[in-house]
Automatic annotation (TrEMBL):
Entry protein name: Uroporphyrin-III C-methyltransferase
PANTHER family, per the entry: CYTOPLASMIC PROTEIN, CYTOPLASMIC PROTEIN-RELATED
Any single Pfam family the record assigns to this protein: DUF488-N3i
InterPro entries: YeaO-like (IPR052552)
Length: 120
């Protein structure tokens, strides 16, 4: 049975409703100490490749193409194991995908949440 999948900024207050908290960024959030993040896991292997992340540069006008490229990366062997792991978590627990990105609706966390919801 699929559970709720949400996403938000890692800098926001934690909530009991978060369920499992998984950081999905390739690099650690600036200015945040590890104990402040209250993470269950940091799954950097599911983040977009460095090349894709640099190309995108969080430009909303590139989001549609970013989404297409990132979904293709999730099917690649390098991302597949991490993506499957997230799918397993989402099948059993509430899942909150965390990112340091300011515009979370145009982030890999938003793409992952949508992708995971369709896979449940």
């Amino acid at each position: 049975m699929a559970k709720q999948i949400t996403y938000r900024r890692v800098y926001e207050e934690t909530s009991p409703a978060d369920g499992k908290r998984v950081l999905v960024d390739r690099v650690w959030p600036r200015g945040m100490r590890k104990e402040e993040a209250h993470l269950d896991e940091w799954l950097r292997e599911v983040a977009p490749s460095s090349d894709l992340r640099k190309w995108y540069a969080h430009e909303p006008s590139r989001f549609t193409e970013f989404r297409r490229r990132y979904l293709a990366e999730l099917r690649d062997a390098g991302h597949r194991r991490a993506a499957e792991h997230l799918r397993d978590i989402a099948a059993h627990d509430r899942l909150t995908l965390l990112t340091a990105t300011r515009d979370v609706d145009h982030s890999q966390a938003a793409v992952l949440a949508e992708w995971l919801a369709k896979k449940q």
